[in-house]
What does this fold into?
Amino acid sequence: MTWTEETLRTELVQLFRQHAQEGVSVDGKSHLVADLGIDSLGVMEVVADIEDRFQLIIPDEALRDVDTIDDVALAIETRLRGDGRLQG
Amino acid sequence: MSMLYAPRTVVQAIEDAAHSTSTGFRFVEEQQDAEPFFTHGGIERASARFGGALQAMGLKKGDRVALILPENADFVFAFLGALRAGIIPVPIYPPTGLGKLAGYLDNTLHVVAKSGAKVCLTSTEIKRVLGTVPARAPELERVIAVETIRGSREPLKPEKVGLDDVAFLQFTSGSTSRPKGVTLTHANLAANVRAIMQLGLGIRDSVDSGVSWLPLYHDMGLIGFVIAPLYHVNTITFLPPLLFLKRPVRWLEAVTRYRGSISFGPNFAYALCVKRIKESEMKNLDLSSWRVAGCGAEPIRAENLRAFADRFAPVGFSEKAFISCYGMAESTLAISFSKLGQGVITDVVDGPTLWGEGQAQPVPEGASSAGAAERAAPIVQCGSPFEDHDVQAFALDDGESERPLGERQVGELRLRGPSVMPGYWADPELTREAFAGGWLKTGDLGYLADGNVHVCGRSKELIIVNGRNYYPQDLEWEAGKVEGVRKGNIIAFGTMKPHNDRERVIIAFETSTADEAAQVALKGEVRRVVQQALGLTVDDVVPLAVGVLPKTSSGKLQRARTRELYEVGELTLRTSSREVDPLGAAKELAKSQIGYVRHALLGGRSDE
It folds into this structure.
């Protein structure tokens, strides 16, 4: 499956909504810890979901620079682009 | 039995095992097709290569080398290579992500500086993020990327290593600014390996095989699954820790695939499997080979283990495989294990008597009245101390360990025996404080019953999350940096209530801001700074009005009292420290002469 930056972000926000604490609004600027209340174990669960959804592997090093959903989107875009699965 | 026991150094154990061509270490990588296997002969050769490379850097016997190696195979061979050269390795955990680099670097700097490491061996990628650490550690001469020495051809020059030589330093506890380096000798390791493998696990040499995802910079992973198996020529399959956290099923798949008979994990690992492994993933599992499932490193909750056993019984897991383990880095690794083949055993005692009077009074069987059930506290039994080791409970103020407490009396558990460390590296003061009359103070509260050790709490106020220790003072310090939070009026603590599979982390602080939106922003900011500095996720942040946090009459914050109030839901109801609890305040006052004087002079106002 190929993605655009827009469909990827929509999908990602959707996915994070399932993991965020209830009643929290989720968008690209959401900080995973401070806003969404996801802990370090929770993050690994989200990563597994992302890998399944986008059919890729996110290496541990890539998580070091991640604070917000937008940061996650960037990490995924880099990998999708490398596979020729990102349009635009 | 003791007569037949001839202790060996780890170096000797590596050489003795090298004849084996069928057993060894397997390193699972994330992509399932790559699983390099090193026979024990291969381990001997690979460790010699790393040992030779370290010697070629100018390191000599007794020098320290810091190891920050995210790949399991690199870590194992560099660690063992250093031991063979008599060089003292200092394992340091690699950065694990989520924007907490600042706190990580601070911690790393303190450990590197304290150990006096001359060389830091790490990966190219981590070398880049270390920033100013190398420049700020006075004795550190070089940071070497492991990629540059993997193919080294420098021969290992033989070095005489004896039982009394220091094997390695384990920096696992202590606050960030004053890390404690547990110093372990080869004699410590030999004694504890014997206790774990022969006495605890009834190990079958070359036959039992282990599976471990445990981090190798932690005692349970390093001593339990790298060092001990070398003495008994066991095959071990290693998984990357983060792979387990991402996909817990990979742990159980490895047990299935390699017919693992021994595997350990902290309480949370078993809970994580129950929570995260999907029904569809069960069909490929066969856990019937799993003879010993050890649980330790953080408080054990019997209901979590029971849930695991229930869930995985259909794929061959036996509840009887569980053993409850008690230990700490200062005693090498293990202090006591429950008996094999019995599963988790709990001692059900009366809760209020336990906490109120320090007596573990068994709840009579068949006491099924609602009241008795409510009061019942199940305490996990961790077996009897290993041969040659002694554990007793003492009153906290028994500074010379003169009077062991009686059966079922709660006190501080203290230990002596050949597994106990000689002390903390380069810190005579902390070392002195760690012992009382020749006994190691564990900092844990517990009791003995029928010769078995029962751990029921901690006298230190450590917060343990997912097997890692945090000092509340470190959290409070970080939270105090947030503007709007009253410095010195912050309390961090951990709580196990409501029932959960792990300790929840709470920070309560006073603020003069009453505006709700501003308080929400403060809460977010506190979470953020703690996360960034310590890599710890705070579960709840509680802003309170000025004067609400409970204090002693001398103005000292009361952490245990705050926890109690939080657990019963009264913390947020308080409007001042005296309103809800006049009796408690009066008691505190009566206890303290200083408080009495201050009360008389200042009319009950704290001057802080």
Summary: Chain B touches chain A through 28 residues (CB under 8 Å). The mean pLDDT of chain B is 88. The CA atoms of residues 170 and 182 of chain B lie 5 Å apart.
